[in-house]
From TrEMBL:
InterPro entries for this protein: NAD(P)-bd_dom_sf, Sc_DH/Rdtase_CS, SDR_fam, Sec_Metab_Biosynth_SDR
Protein name: Short-chain dehydrogenase/reductase SDR
Pfam families listed in its UniProt record: adh_short_C2
Native organism: Ruminiclostridium papyrosolvens DSM 2782
Gene Ontology biological process terms, A to Z: bile acid metabolic process
Keyword hit for DNA-binding: no
Oxidoreductase listed as a keyword: yes
Gene3D superfamilies: NAD(P)-binding Rossmann-like Domain
GO terms assigned for molecular function: oxidoreductase activity
Stated family: Belongs to the short-chain dehydrogenases/reductases (SDR) family.
Swiss-Prot/TrEMBL keywords: NADP, Oxidoreductase
Length: 259
């Protein structure tokens, strides 16, 4: 039986690739045989990631500085990737932000920032990549949502209403895209991670011993996710192993959403 997880000959685009889940996913794609385009705003960090992936895997990596909330940035970035590789097979929409605050306290600017980064970026990346996927009759789109798309935060001192609602919007967008583009050989699915250490969480959640004790107590696995533990799900939804999986939401949370 052929290895349905093999990505040899594929090109993957990863947003938010300068750190955390995005960097891990880019390495995973390259190890699976794909060439990779990594996108983020921070050019120097991208350069470092590019060099490490190429040295470790031997795959070709293109680093493109891009603000995925800005249409012209996205259009230019996609044009660059297509010029370098000729085609795009996989899009991992990973860029995201978690703004704290409830609707009674947060600013409109903070609310809009959440939706621009978490939802608008998926719209823009898909807007410029889906047409090429339709033309080639193949594509895998994976959207990183959050377990907090379906469950609220469990701590009174930790409220993120714009995060909850924007990540829920990702699920609606995922289903709509999946239904519309399945006929073109494109699958669209979403992943809902719980707490994983990243640049976004290390300076806040992982520095709070009180928070981690509560989190570990409430999670059946008794711990946050470890580095790389999302990669299996990402590779599954990005490969032909999931060829008949469409519009689904896979939660990777150690069981936190079942209790």
């Amino acid at each position: 039986m052929a290895n349905t997880f093999d990505l040899t000959g594929k090109v993957a685009v990863v947003t938010g690739a300068s750190s955390g889940i995005g960097t891990d996913a880019a390495f995973a794609y390259a190890h699976a045989g794909a060439d990779v385009a990594i996108l983020a705003r921070r050019a120097e960090k991208l350069k470092d990631v590019k060099e490490k992936i190429e040295k470790e895997t031997g795959r070709k990596v293109v680093a493109v500085s891009c603000d995925v909330t800005q249409e012209e940035n996205v259009k230019s970035a996609v044009d660059t990737v297509l010029k370098e590789f000729g085609h795009i097979d996989i899009l991992l929409n990973n860029a995201g932000i978690a703004v704290q605050g409830g609707v009674d306290s947060m600013s409109v600017e903070a609310w809009n920032q959440s939706f621009d980064t978490n939802v608008k970026s998926i719209f823009l990346m898909s807007k410029y990549i889906i047409p090429q996927m339709k033309e080639q009759g193949y594509g895998k789109v994976v959207n990183i949502a959050s377990v907090n798309a379906i469950v609220a935060d469990k701590f009174d001192t930790f409220i993120r209403h714009s995060y909850n609602s924007s990540k829920s919007a990702v699920l609606g967008l995922t289903k709509g895209m999946a239904a519309s583009y399945a006929r073109y050989g494109i699958t669209v699915n979403a992943i809902g991670p719980a707490l994983f250490e990243s640049e976004m969480t290390s300076d806040t959640l992982f520095k709070s011993n009180e928070f981690l004790v509560k989190y570990n107590t409430l999670n059946p696995s008794g711990r946050p996710g470890n580095k790389g533990e999302l990669n299996g799900t990402i590779l599954y939804l990005s490969s032909d192993a999931s060829s008949y999986v469409q519009g689904q939401f896979i939660v990777v949370d150690g069981g936190g959403s079942i209790v």
